[in-house]
Amino acid sequence: MGPFVVSSVRSTQTLMYDVAEYIFESPPRTPPETSPVAKPAAVNRVLEWLEPSEDEQEKILRPFEYLNRNPGKRIRATIIHAFNYWLKVPEHHLQTICKVVDMLHNSSLLIDDIEDGSDTRRGKPAAHCVYGVAQTLNSANYVYFQVLSHLRLLGLHQTASVFCEEMLHLHGGQGMELYWRDNMECPSEADYLKMAANKTGGLIRLAVRLMMALSPYKHIDCLDIATLLGIHFQIRDDYKNLTSIEYENAKCFCEDIEEGKFSFPIIHCLENSSWPQVLLAILRQRTKCRHLKQHALDMITRSGSLVYTRNVLNSYQQEITKRVARLGGNALMEKLIEQLAIDAA
């Protein structure tokens, strides 16, 4: 062993002893043959030492806070308050649920933008374009676990299981969408609807399941409405991605075509167009060329896929409205549904 290696080992040992002395007040310079179980006070000192300082946490969270300072429409908070029209969860618990859902939503957007190769989010450069992929991914994952700490404040024994189940649903849905895109495998409409129920319905169901557990009205079950809203949201987002000037200004023209994504209108077009291989060829290129994207959009329009999508959205809106009525009506939910409506052709 060379002198440099010996010196490095000794420096490492010295540092280890210094750390041990800082935590335990007496360094374990001669390890015993059997290690005793640490005392609670010693465990607490270890955990206190490991806890990130405010300065460290600020640095870890910079990509997340960058997006958080550029808020969206906060539609999920509106949804949560609409469900609370029935469930009557105490306000302090409701605020916790709103906070964690917003944290999870923004964290998932950080990851989505990396997975989709998106350069912009809410009209500004995406977080990973500013802070890099590695730091942005770590920041998003860090917030996922922060959420569990916040959820403990609800005092529910099922918090962890609800969180894990719905986050698995969310990432499972996202995983299938990525698989279809990266393998150029067009899903069936039924497979798409299951994906949307998992991916977009996951956070809504997470909130509603926690609210139902905290509600004094245990007989009220809103999960079907939560899932239908998630599907409606995803199809609506797919439609607006191809048709909305507002969306184009915030992101880009026909971003789903550029990403090669099998969105709801694109799936319908591939199943009903006379020349599906042309659209597939454009999707495969992941093109940024506006002319090519416009050609693809023209095919989608001629195949009747945008009209079909609007009519499906209208059907979901009607079904949600029926189920709201079965629960005795809900002025907040009815207003929300009206705001989300896209008229059927």
UniProtKB/TrEMBL annotation:
Classification via CDD domains = Trans_IPPS_HT (cd00685)
Instruction: Identify the domain of life.
Output: Eukaryota
GO BP of this protein = geranylgeranyl diphosphate biosynthetic process
Record-linked PROSITE patterns? LISH, POLYPRENYL_SYNTHASE_1, POLYPRENYL_SYNTHASE_2
**UniProt KW keywords:** Magnesium, Metal-binding, Transferase
Question: What GO MF annotations does this protein's record show?
Answer: geranylgeranyl diphosphate synthase activity; metal ion binding
Spell out the InterPro entries in the cross-references.
Answer: Isoprenoid_synthase_dom_sf, LisH, Polyprenyl_synt, Polyprenyl_synt_CS
> Member of which family?
Belongs to the FPP/GGPP synthase family.
What is the official name of this protein in its record? Uncharacterized protein
Q: From what organism does this protein derive?
A: Bifiguratus adelaidae
Record lineage = Eukaryota, Fungi, Fungi incertae sedis, Mucoromycota, Mucoromycotina
